[in-house]
Write a structure and sequence with these properties.
Blueprint (H helix, E strand, L loop, with lengths): L15 H6 L11 H4 L8 E9 L8 E10 L4 E8 L9 H4 L3 H4 L5 H12 L3 E4 L2 H14 L8 E4 H7 L9 H7 L10 H22 L5 E3 L31 E2 L2 E2 L34 E5 L6 H10 L3 E3 L8 E4 L7 H9 L3 E2 L1 H7 L10
Helix pairs in contact: 8-9
């Protein structure tokens, strides 16, 4: 077990050598790398991450973050934790336990960005449902006009599936129970990161033992995302700590339910054009083509999908034999869409090429 003293909400646990000294080495769950050999292609270090947020939407904010740094074989090197002033209401306080009062004097994200970057630099980001934690981190860095030093991420849900672990579901508590890891404070960022670090290490060694390819996905920082009064204005000018009159879960229009985002979800209209079939490599996009997007994009996913829809394309949430093309910056990944695209022989384009072709989409009548 990894021993650690989890702080109360708003209280920052120790860091550095003193904190690391409180964490004894964990006994290997399977043969160690020295005994069975360690794959040359595996990462040299990991950053096990958990973030708690004001909600689940794209424009929600981080209220606390924790990182456990692990070496190539999953041994803990150190850990770090900080609360974050979200400059708005803290959202579901009944889940993460952080109130407006707890966060009033917490640092802004811009004030912890360097510390967090130091702990992520050169490592694979590991999280349970990693796409969520990474997307929240990527958006915070984008708002701060900074680039996060993360190139790859690993989702422990995907790893558990690859290892065929006999889990009743893919909740963190189920993964923890499988390895006998006790949760002390669920939804506290530091304790969730500790639990995941404990569960990840034996999973990593099992992957080595089974000669499993790790489910690594590329991480791309956001270069373009929607802005306007509903996004930038909601956070103020970034220079102050106030919640801009938003306290205890209340906004200008009344209480904000958990998961409420600053940009209201929109339902896209049905594509009015028939599907002309698959994209022909080297050719033009044609109105009505069914397009699926997988993995990170440098342009905000919702914004990219809006542009495709406005050009007359049909955005699909899955890949099938009817899909005209798949857009991905990580064609070697093991995502469901990429795997299905390979099985169906679906043409694949990267984001840059797709964005360029969006500027000259052929009318449906020309097909």
């Amino acid at each position: 077990m990894l021993e650690d003293q989890t702080a109360s909400p708003g209280e920052e646990p120790g860091d550095g050598a003193a904190a690391a000294a409180r964490i004894p080495a964990q006994a290997p769950a399977v043969s160690s790398g020295a005994e069975c050999g360690w794959p040359d292609g595996y990462p040299q270090g990991y950053a096990v991450v958990d973030v708690e947020t004001t909600g689940l939407a794209r424009h929600d904010r981080i209220v606390s973050a924790a990182v456990y740094r692990l070496d190539a074989r999953g041994e803990v090197e150190d850990h770090w934790y900080s609360t974050v002033n979200p400059q708005r209401d803290p959202g579901p306080t009944w889940i993460h336990g952080l109130t407006s009062e707890d966060l009033a004097d917490a640092p802004l994200f811009t004030e912890i960005a360097d510390d967090l970057a130091t702990r992520l630099d050169g490592r694979v980001l590991v999280a349970h449902n990693a796409v969520f934690d990474w997307s929240m981190i990527a958006r915070e860095y984008a708002r701060a006009r900074r680039t996060p030093p993360v190139r790859q991420r690993l989702c422990t849900i995907a790893l558990s599936k690859q290892l065929s672990l006999p889990l009743p579901n893919h909740k963190l508590e189920s993964l923890a129970a499988h390895y006998g890891v006790s949760q002390r404070r669920a939804h506290h960022a530091l304790d969730d990161a500790r639990v995941l670090a404990e569960a990840f290490r034996p999973s990593l060694h099992l992957a080595v033992q089974q000669e499993v390819r790790l489910p690594l996905n590329a991480c791309r920082p956001l270069a373009e995302w929607p802005e306007g009064p509903d996004v930038a204005g909601a956070y103020g000018d970034g220079g102050g700590r106030s919640f801009r009159g938003v306290r205890h879960g209340w906004g200008p229009g009344g209480p904000r339910p958990y998961g409420h985002g600053w940009r209201r979800p929109r339902k896209r209209p049905a594509c009015p054009y028939p599907n002309p079939g698959r994209y022909e490599p080297g050719g033009r996009l044609v109105q009505g083509m069914r397009v699926a997007i997988s993995g990170d994009t440098s342009v905000d996913r919702e914004l990219l999908e809006d542009r495709a829809t406005e050009a007359g394309l049909h955005i699909s949430s899955h890949v099938s034999s009817l899909t005209s093309l798949l857009v991905t910056n990580d064609p070697g990944s093991l995502t469901t869409k990429v795997v299905k695209a390979k099985a169906h022989g679906t043409p694949v384009l990267d984001e840059e090429t797709f964005g360029r072709l969006l500027g000259d989409v052929a009318p449906a009548s020309e097909r």
